[in-house]
Recover the amino acids of this structure.
């Protein structure tokens, strides 16, 4: 193992001010920017680290910046929102070669980088190589800390390539050996995208790639005094920035695989059954690795109240939901009634945002689950809370439905076959069929479908009939498959 590298760094004054006008234009155009539809009114620098000297042919800065925006689209003149914190890797060159044109941020007119061109450095080979070497050598550069699993070897010289598919984060593949996921929207605290795969690796669970290395930032509380609401207690905790894992060469994305099978008219039942088994194996390992809790009447009622609150807000936002409101509410009140009668449920750590796109299948038919970050829009503390594992099952059932209704003509029978096979596979590995708890499963699938309706109405109106078909079913029955 190579020796750890430790070095201090200095950052020129006025760096963020000189980048400000360029970032205001560039940042909202990025797929992973969470504040779309609201202008960026300013930035706060949380941390800046010079990884390569800006005065050289190629400079490189690692930035954590908080982007300030109005509270909402109609809040012109309202007090500024504390803002989300983003991780940026800013490359600095005299001019960009044509291959880096898509990564352009802009030309800096003033300040310490005046006359230079800045760009998203993840698209460039040398900066990506530097990150891998820092992980391999367990470097400490300024407040950045690069850690690794000593049992796993990281070879040098692996050729990097950025993943160009749309993602809510950014990824770089190294020589078909590793993939580095760089989190873009950063919060302090224990991130489940590192925490849960590490816990599963300790349990020897083969369904999740074990983290090879990871990078964090140790930020002083005074460096980021303006944290989002509810996160002030996290001040001073490390910010998880990225995770390096083995690259699953030849694996197929579950969503794309399902659509291909649909297009060919192929049966997906055996694959869905195997995915159900894989999901149950992950849930069982997580229940062994991390504490579980029992949800009683009070906890369940709070959960039901949250579901009803989201329903009421959705009905106001999407008029097409109004005819179904009573039936949808019954999905939640039925769960509350069971809780009031003394029924309890076990809650545990789970994936939190499970769907076909979060699963990979090997050429031999084995499934892996990836991306344990949870729903990024939800607070970190909420994403780390134990919950009934059936929430993940409900997310996957909705994903089968989405795949079947995204083709023309829709294939609802295909979805039903997959849903049934998935639950059967889950039961084979866990000993518990999710369909034997129909009230809980219906409540979670209904909550997910309501979320989908609001999302599609705002972002993809042409897709609105997909979740509305599920809404029609869920409002009228307690049976899922």
């Amino acid at each position: 193992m190579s020796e750890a590298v430790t070095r201090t760094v200095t950052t020129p004054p006025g760096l963020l001010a000189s980048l400000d006008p360029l970032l205001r234009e560039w940042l909202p155009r990025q797929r992973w920017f969470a504040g779309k539809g609201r202008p960026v009114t300013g930035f706060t620098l949380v941390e800046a680290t010079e990884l390569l000297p800006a005065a050289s042919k190629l400079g490189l800065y690692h930035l954590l910046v908080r982007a300030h925006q109005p509270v909402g689209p109609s809040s012109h003149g309202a007090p500024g929102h504390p803002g989300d914190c983003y991780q940026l890797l800013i490359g600095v060159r005299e001019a960009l070669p044509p291959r880096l044109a898509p990564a352009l941020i802009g030309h800096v007119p003033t300040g310490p980088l005046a006359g230079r061109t800045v760009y998203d450095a993840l698209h460039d080979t040398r900066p990506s190589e530097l990150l891998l070497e820092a992980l391999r050598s367990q470097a400490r550069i300024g407040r950045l800390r690069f850690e690794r699993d000593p049992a796993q070897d990281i070879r040098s010289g692996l050729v990097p390539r950025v993943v160009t598919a749309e993602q809510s984060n950014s990824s770089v593949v190294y020589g078909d050996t590793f993939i580095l996921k760089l989190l873009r929207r950063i919060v302090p605290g224990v991130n489940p995208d590192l925490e849960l795969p590490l816990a599963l690796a300790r349990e020897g669970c083969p369904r999740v790639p074990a983290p090879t290395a990871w990078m964090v930032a140790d930020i002083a509380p005074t460096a980021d005094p303006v944290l989002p609401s509810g996160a002030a207690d996290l001040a001073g905790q490390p910010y998880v920035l990225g995770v390096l894992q083995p690259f699953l060469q030849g694996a197929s994305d579950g969503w794309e695989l399902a659509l291909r099978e649909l297009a060919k008219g192929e049966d997906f039942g055996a694959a869905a059954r195997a995915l159900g088994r894989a999901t149950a194996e992950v849930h069982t390992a997580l229940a062994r690795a991390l504490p579980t809790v029992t949800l009683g009447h009070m906890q369940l009622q709070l959960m039901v109240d949250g579901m009803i609150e989201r329903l009421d807000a959705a009905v106001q936002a999407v008029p097409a939901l109004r005819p179904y409101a009573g039936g949808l509410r019954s999905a939640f009140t039925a769960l509350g009634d069971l809780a009031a009668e003394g029924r309890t449920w076990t809650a545990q750590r789970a994936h939190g945002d499970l769907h076909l796109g979060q699963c990979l299948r090997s050429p031999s038919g084995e499934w892996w689950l990836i991306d344990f970050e949870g729903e990024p829009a939800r607070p970190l503390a909420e994403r780390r809370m134990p919950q009934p594992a059936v929430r993940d099952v409900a997310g996957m059932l909705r994903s089968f439905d989405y795949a079947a209704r995204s083709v023309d003509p829709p294939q609802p029978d295909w979805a039903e076959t997959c849903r049934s096979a998935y639950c059967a596979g889950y039961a084979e590995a866990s000993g518990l069929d999710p369909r034997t708890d129909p009230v809980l499963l219906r409540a979670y699938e209904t909550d997910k479908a309501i979320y989908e309706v609001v999302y599609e109405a705002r972002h993809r109106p042409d897709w609105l009939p997909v979740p509305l078909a599920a809404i029609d079913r869920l409002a009228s029955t307690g049976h899922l498959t």
